[in-house]
Amino acid sequence: MKWDYHIVSDYSDSDLTLPQIFNQARSRGLSAIAITDRDRVEGALKACAAAEDLEVMLGIEVSAQDDQGRPVSVLGYAFDPQARALRHLCQMTLVRQNELALWQIEQLDQAGYPITVSEVRRKLGHGQCLYSQHIMDVLTEKGIADGLRGSFYRRYFGTGGLCQRSIRYPTVKEAIEAIHQDHGIAVLAHPGLSGCIDQIWKWAEMGLDGVETGYSAQSFSQVMRIHEIAMALGLIETAGSGNRGRYGDPIPIGTVSWKGERLCRPMKN
Prior knowledge:
This protein is of the alpha/beta class. Helices cover 38% and strands 16% of the residues. Strands 1-2-3-4-5-6-7 form a seven-stranded mixed β-sheet.
């Protein structure tokens, strides 16, 4: 069986609708997927109710940060659909993200680039929170930017750029605790890409249940190192493409670099 447990919909920072995701998953021969929208559960809940021949795992990608303030993502799976703790934890993150995007639009406008909030909002799809992808989509359509992740993006949204400003996220511990409060499984997203492999041991002591061993942007050496740590700690191992449609890397749904066991809840004594 093939699966992909890291897919983002247009309820978040992707341009793919749920029907488009379902169709791509079927065409790739997948039997199970998880919708892991950033800090939101609405798209995943809709997917669980709407999918017919696909098994859909309820998921979320919680924006967090390590002790040095570096961004880290924690995936939550199979939690209570009401997700009270997760909604509460992520509410302020979404507010801060939207405020950041509005500030970025203002900075660009003041710098002489013609862009308005209403133009960017039209890119939202089913989402409610603005992201840099939505801003760059407008700028690219107008011929101002050279693509969603081209030189314009690196110049203005990269480190030291006009639109670069950090957001304070919950800690990894807080993310794990919120997922567990909602009776879910906490999995560290793409630790190789996030540069936090060495911290897996610490977070496992805090209750981390698993790691995303297979991820499209992780190298083979990173995959094997994550796998070795997971084996040593008895952690669940998952895999996913991280697909965000046009708003992410051009990695097809179902493209993973690890073929371990499917995600399952650990047996309880």
